[in-house]
């Protein structure tokens, strides 16, 4: 039987329920920008009746260059996310990079994300599971869909069955990704809700030399396709002005384009699920 993962009365992850939007800037650039973007997205999703979780990273530990902006760090970043959560009454998600971080971040985050590059790090996976918070595992670009079963078993070994599985594209030669939509079907066979990461799936890893490139013009098409196949959630990074973003500027969707995109996706989701 497919699992339902309930965050609160409004946000439920399920292959059969209306899709949940996970969205926000790639990295927290400032307190003001995080609050403003979260507020704008909340207004849009409230208007459209779409459940919403705010996502932004307090530390981008996997930047191509050591000189790239990483974010405000653990303490300040969690303070900002806590303010977003409390001020706007919305769940928050961010990623962690070590077992020690997982325990600290779990005091604030509603959903703890295991990054794609770290999804096979056993100590990290177990630490996230032991928080008993919802764990969102981003399937590594180097994994086959069925390889996620081992990660699921690690999380389940902690007694935590609140698991989300995210597809974010698979490595396709150098500096390129491809989305295999069979992956969504195969990962759903675990019984856990599946998330499709729209904007990371159009990333061109390392293609800009000291940063990643991207082809965000294809993001709407991939979002429609994934929704038609069947997902519990879409993960979309968005920014007030992507051209000036300090991380993933090539793939983020402008906030002012989100309402029309979400209207279109919602129509596909309603049709797929008979809502």
Q: Can you describe what's shown?
A:
This protein is of the alpha/beta class. The protein is 33% helix and 19% strand. It contains 8 helices and 15 strands. The chain has helices spanning 31-48, 74-88, 99-105, 122-130, 148-156, 182-188, 219-229, 258-273; strands at 5-6, 12-13, 20-24, 52-55, 92-95, 111-114, 134-138, 163-167, 170-171, 177-178, 194-197, 203-204, 213-214, 233-239, 253-254. It has an 8-stranded parallel β-barrel with strand order 3-4-5-6-7-8-11-14, surrounded by 6 helices. It has a two-stranded antiparallel sheet with strand order 1-2. Strands 9-10 form a two-stranded antiparallel sheet. α1 crosses α8, α3 packs parallel to α4 (122-130) and α4 (122-130) crosses α5 (148-156). The longest helix is centred in the N-terminal third of the chain and has 18 residues, at 31-48. The model has no long low-confidence stretch (mean pLDDT 94).
Q: Write down the overall mean pLDDT.
A: 94
Number of helices: 8
Fraction in helix: 25-40%
Report Rg: 17 Å
Low-pLDDT regions: none
Output the strand order for the largest sheet: 3-4-5-6-7-8-11-14
List its traits.
alpha/beta, two-stranded antiparallel sheet, 19% strand
Would you summarize the structure shown here?
With 275 residues, the protein is of the alpha/beta class. The chain has eight helices and 15 strands. The model has no long low-confidence stretch (mean pLDDT 94).
List the helices and strands and how they pair.
Layout: E1 5-6, E2 12-13, E3 20-24, H1 31-48, E4 52-55, H2 74-88, E5 92-95, H3 99-105, E6 111-114, H4 122-130, E7 134-138, H5 148-156, E8 163-167, E9 170-171, E10 177-178, H6 182-188, E11 194-197, E12 203-204, E13 213-214, H7 219-229, E14 233-239, E15 253-254, H8 258-273
Parallel strand pairs: 3-4, 3-14, 4-5, 5-6, 6-7, 7-8, 8-11, 11-14, 14-15
Antiparallel strand pairs: 1-2, 9-10, 12-13
Helix pairs in contact: 1-2, 1-8, 3-4, 4-5, 7-8
